[in-house]
Structure formats: C-alpha cells, structure tokens
Design brief:
The protein is an alpha/beta fold. The protein is built from 10 helices and 13 strands. Helix 1 runs parallel beside helix 4.
Length: 356
C-alpha cells in the first residue's frame, strides 16, 4: 500500500557506521543519533564536560516515540517460515527498546551517570529538559546530554494515516487551508550544565508540565493543558507574559491542534508576542521535535533572528488570533531577551535566553 503523503528523510543515515564496540546497537534510530552526535563539535564538548565533572556526574535524558521499531519491522519480514522465530541478529534490548538510544549514547561516551528515555509521543524531546533540570537541582548531576531521536518507520506512518492526519502536501502550520501533518525524522542533542553561565550562553530559565487527560490523541478544544503548562513555565522562570519576545509553536498543521493552540496562547499572552511554527521546514519529528525546536530557538537567540510565519504557509488562517511574522527577520530585542520553546499538547514549555 502506498501512502499519499510527504516525508522528511535524513540523507546518509544508512551509510553511517557505528564503532565495532557498539555494533549491537546498529539500527536506523541509533545511526541517526550517531550522525547527530558527530555534528558541530558536540562530541568534543561532551568530552570536555567529562574532564570538568567526571563521567559519573553526567546524565543522559533522551526522548523518542518509536525508537528502533523499524528494525523490528524488518526482522518480522525475515522470520523463520517454520517456527516464526525472529532472526538471530535481531536484538530487542538494543534495537527496539525505547531505552536503547540512551544506552547507546551513554556507552558511546563511557558515561556513568543516570540515564533515562522519556516516551510521551511528541513531548518526549522537550520533557527531557525538565527531567535533567530536576536532577541538577537535587545535586545528583552537574551536566546532562538531553535531546531526542526519532526515525522513520512504517508503524508511525500507517498509524497517523489511520487517524486521517497525514497531508498529501508538505504541511502548512496555521494556514487557512492546512490539512494535516508531514512526518519527518531527526536527532538533536544539547549539553546542559549547572552553574554560572558564560557570556553568550543560552540558559534554560524554567519549564512547565501538565496533563489535562482530555483525550488520547486529540487536544482539549480550548488548549487547557497547554495553558496550565505555560503558566507553570512562566512561574518557574520568574517571568511575566510581556517578558517573552517570541514563541515557537507546536504547529502541527492539523485543524484542531492549531486552533486549540491559538486559543491557549491567546489566553496567556494575548496577541502581543510573535509566534511561528518551524514544522513546515522539518516536518513533525515526533519524539525529536522538542530537541530540534530547542536548537532552533537557541540559534534564533544567538543570531538575533525571528523565524518567519512558516515555511509553506500561503494564506494565514483569519480565524486564528496569534501574530505570525510574514518572513524571517532580525529581532529588535535586548541582548537578554526571553524566547520560549513551546510544545503545546505535550504540556511543556521552556524559556531560554542568551546571557550578555
């Protein structure tokens, strides 16, 4: 069966080779994680943190929704025709199991601190920030690798197709004619450290989480849980709504999500804060979305950019109240302006700022 939809596939993942000592972890999800860990000097930054704090004082907190389930899908195609047994080279613990990606990262850097994976659908890669911050506040760790990894698999694609949520075109968040999501894959990692920030660092100021238990897959029509999370995050960060200069939307491009998100935002911030969704460029990367959009916000802060209203947007929905910048532009903000990464339905919001 062919699906009439657009997907965002990361190039070169199949060619990634893991170190021989990590061969048990070889699956698309962990190869995608490896590819991300090789970017922007991240490995060197982790090794420097180990020198400062020690391997036992660095935790790993990662989000994923389906982990290496693609490896399971492939293994089922190779079952023994007589017994139905899975092939001998399939390893549930290091392929399919949600914890596999955290175990992989922990072993790759020879870390000895606490490690966990959060699998709460699309909030996974955002909730890890709050989880790591809590352990830092408790004095259990001094630093943490946080992030999210989710790779393409048929389970995800057919699952969203069964919910009638896939768009045949690249998704158009907050567009008047939006008609569904585009699934992507991604991996993103951030190194958090406790202590005083240096000039130019991006700082995690606060986070808020909630759960309105409205429905398993549909948002509360008025965005109740999102509003509770935003209010908790503001309180955690010691901020007022008018301290915020930009909000990165969850913005999945479904009719119900974007409408409910708009109501929640209006209830907390009014219409005074520019907002935009970046999923038109990345697709919905599910368990990696929080990490990817945290990086986007950090880059926006560092370079003084205000992301535009949305890639692929053609006609802003007149029924929605929130202000969408019509294009990317330089932000006329103070050096320590606040920006919020907000992943609404997942009930987490994190505020960050660059220190001057």
């Amino acid at each position: 069966m062919d699906l009439n939809t657009q997907v965002g596939e990361v190039a070169g993942v199949d060619a990634v080779q893991l170190a021989p000592t990590l061969s048990d972890y070889d699956c698309r999800n962990n190869r995608l994680a490896e590819l991300a860990l090789r970017q922007d000097g991240f490995g060197a930054a982790v090794r420097a943190a180990i020198e400062r704090h020690g391997a036992s004082r660095i935790g790993v907190f990662l989000g994923t929704s389906t982990a290496g389930i693609l490896q399971t899908e492939l293994a089922y195609r190779r079952r023994d025709p007589a017994t139905g047994a899975l092939p001998h080279d399939f390893r549930y613990a290091t392929h399919h199991n949600s914890y596999s990606v955290a175990s992989f990262v922990r072993r790759r850097f020879a870390l000895a601190g606490p490690a966990t994976v959060i699998s709460t659908a699309c909030s996974s890669g955002a909730k890890v920030f709050a989880a790591a911050a809590r352990l830092m506040a408790a004095g259990m760790i001094d630093a943490a690798i946080v992030g999210g990894v989710d790779s393409l698999c048929l389970t995800t694609l057919y699952g969203f197709n069964s919910l009638e949520l896939l768009s045949a075109q690249p998704c158009r968040p907050f567009d008047a004619h939006r008609n569904g999501i585009s699934i992507g894959e991604a991996a993103g990692f951030i190194l958090l450290e406790a202590g005083s920030a240096a000039e130019g660092d991006v700082v995690l100021l606060g986070a808020g989480e909630s759960s309105d238990a409205h429905h398993m897959s549909s948002p509360h029509p008025d965005g109740l849980g999102a509003r509770l999370a935003m209010e908790a995050a503001l309180a955690s960060a010691g901020l007022r709504p008018d301290d915020v200069d930009y909000i990165n939307l969850h913005g999945t491009a479904t009719q119900t999500n974007d409408a409910a998100e708009d109501k929640a935002l209006f209830g907390v911030f009014g219409t005074g804060v520019p907002v935009s969704s970046t999923k038109g460029a990345t697709g919905h990367t599910l368990g990696a979305a929080g990490a990817i959009e945290a990086v986007i916000c950090a880059l926006a802060l560092t370079h003084g950019l205000l992301p535009g209203g949305g890639v692929n947007m053609q006609t802003p929905d007149p029924a929605l109240k929130e202000p969408l910048p019509d294009r990317q532009r330089r932000a006329a903000a103070a050096p320590c302006a606040e920006q919020f990464l907000r992943l609404w339905r997942h009930q987490l919001l994190a505020a960050v700022r660059p220190c001057a």
